[in-house]
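Retro notes (design track)

What went well: tokenization of the new backbones is finally stable.
What didn't: we kept losing track of which sequence belonged to which structure.
Fix going forward: every design gets posted as structure first, then sequence, in one message. First example under the new rule, 392 residues:
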């Protein structure tokens, strides 16, 4: 018999990366027994988990073992097979966010179609049925446009920018040449990229967080600033859209809604993630209730927490330095932590490689300008390297 912990509930987490680890940290504060499933024996969440099932994310035996050891199953990423989870859900196992919401959201075309059907604003898009239809996309969407894999992909992977007819064939080949379903989406000349965390409880209550402004480099999130520098009317519209998105998918737990804001103030929904999100890490120090605590509250049927922003907050990702691969070595910690308000999070990944997310830093301050200045100084100090030879 697996002990149920102080709250009488056991949680199973599919994935033991940094998101799983930060969920686990909040669950352990509440005395909850947590089992993780991850194929990597010493993944970041391993050291904190009560039990670790070392199995592939698509391994039915491993997932069934996780279900038997858990009262509630959740996941740290959406690119997992839904067929096994559907069977487990039909057999009476609680899985949050629901498998129905996962199935729709993990397919970018189905996700966009669901949003469009709800009359929510999204970029123009269409499925690619046949290779011969490639040449028609520029006529309907205009150039440039994005060719996307319908499933999989993160941090820009699974997307190809088509600037003109000369890019069509190379973009098609780079995305598997039709081996997986593809879609095309109009390119949005946005002014700002923003995101909103939102959480839905089992009973249907919804809690929405402040709007964050995101900054990317090479399609990887580098920094999130909260609150976003937006006119009050635009901010209000964004928050209303996030609430409507939650009603569309009827999921339970944390979701992140990424949006574009154009120069004229128009808002378009870019993507929805059914889980805690990198752009929400600021909430650990910045909000009364972090996205990870909120997720645990939601999937256990507990009251949702206060989402109020305490002070202006900036989160900066710490990526593996170019030219280094191997066992992680973190330099500049002393100098960074000597700066006021700096909070350091290192995820516990044993090996670094260029542009891999290895941790993040957060700064809260009385004013956004001050927080940005401090975090830029801290980021200059911290270097994620290794003792291995230069890989370049």
């Amino acid at each position: 018999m697996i002990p149920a912990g102080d709250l009488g509930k056991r949680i199973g987490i599919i994935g033991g990366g940094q998101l799983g680890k930060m969920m686990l940290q909040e669950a352990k504060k509440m005395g909850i027994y947590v089992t993780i499933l991850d194929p990597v024996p010493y993944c970041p969440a391993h050291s904190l988990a009560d039990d670790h099932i070392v199995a592939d994310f698509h391994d039915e035996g491993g997932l069934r073992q996780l279900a038997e050891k858990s009262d509630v199953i959740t996941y740290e990423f959406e690119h997992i097979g839904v067929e096994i989870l559907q069977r487990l859900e039909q057999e009476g196992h609680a899985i949050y966010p629901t498998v129905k919401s996962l199935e729709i959201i993990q397919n970018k075309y189905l996700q966009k179609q669901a949003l469009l059907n709800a009359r929510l604003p999204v970029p123009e898009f269409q499925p690619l049925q046949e290779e011969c239809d490639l040449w028609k996309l520029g006529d309907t969407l205009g150039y440039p446009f994005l060719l996307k894999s319908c499933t999989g992909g993160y941090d820009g992977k699974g997307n190809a920018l088509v600037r003109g007819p000369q890019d069509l064939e190379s973009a098609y080949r780079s995305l598997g040449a039709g081996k997986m379903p593809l879609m095309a989406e109009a390119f949005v000349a946005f002014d700002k990229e923003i995101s909103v965390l939102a959480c839905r409880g089992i009973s249907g209550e919804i809690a929405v967080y402040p709007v964050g402004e995101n900054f990317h480099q090479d399609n990887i999130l580098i920094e999130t600033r909260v609150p976003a520098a937006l006119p009050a009317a635009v901010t209000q519209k964004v928050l209303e859209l996030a609430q409507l998105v939650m009603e569309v998918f009827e999921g339970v737990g944390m979701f992140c809604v990424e949006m574009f804001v154009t120069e004229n103030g128009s808002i378009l929904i870019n993507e929805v993630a059914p889980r805690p999100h990198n752009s929400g890490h600021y909430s650990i120090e910045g909000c009364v209730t972090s996205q990870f605590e909120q997720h645990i509250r939601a999937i256990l049927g507990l009251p949702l927490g206060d989402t109020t922003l305490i002070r202006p907050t900036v989160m900066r990702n710490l990526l593996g330095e170019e030219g280094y691969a191997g066992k992680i070595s973190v330099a500049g910690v002393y100098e960074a932590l000597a700066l006021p308000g700096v909070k350091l999070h290192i995820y516990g990944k044993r090996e670094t490689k260029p542009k891999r997310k290895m941790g993040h830093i957060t700064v809260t301050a009385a004013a956004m300008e001050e927080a940005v200045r401090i975090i830029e100084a801290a980021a200059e100090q911290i270097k994620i390297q290794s003792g291995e030879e230069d890989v370049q």
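Added context from the reviewer: Residues 60 and 84 are 6 Å apart (CA to CA).
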